Amino acid sequence: MEHNRHDDTKLIAVIGLLVSVLLIVSILFGVTYFFDFKHTHKVIDIRSCYSKGF
Questions:
Q1: What is the pTM for the complete model shown?
Q2: SS3 47
Q3: Residue 17 and residue 29: Cα distance in Å, rounded?
Q4: pLDDT tens digits, residue range 15-34?
Q5: What range does the domain containing 28 cover?
Q6: CA dist., res. 41 & res. 24, Å (int)
Q7: Alpha-carbon torsion 26, 32, 35, 39, what sign?
Q8: Would residue 54 count as lying in a domain?
Q9: Which position has the higher pLDDT, 1 or 46?
């Protein structure tokens, strides 16, 4: 059985690509989760949305 160096390089490249995609998705999820978590404690006054004076 012949061991090809090109196949090893492709395998390392694919594994590196998958790890980098996983890292990017995790970072984006974390940023959006913490940004949303920070803004969920604001109280919205529903009555202030209606026009007054009618």
A1: 0.58
A2: helix
A3: 18
A4: 999 999 999 999 999 999 88
A5: 5-49
A6: 27
A7: negative
A8: no
A9: 46
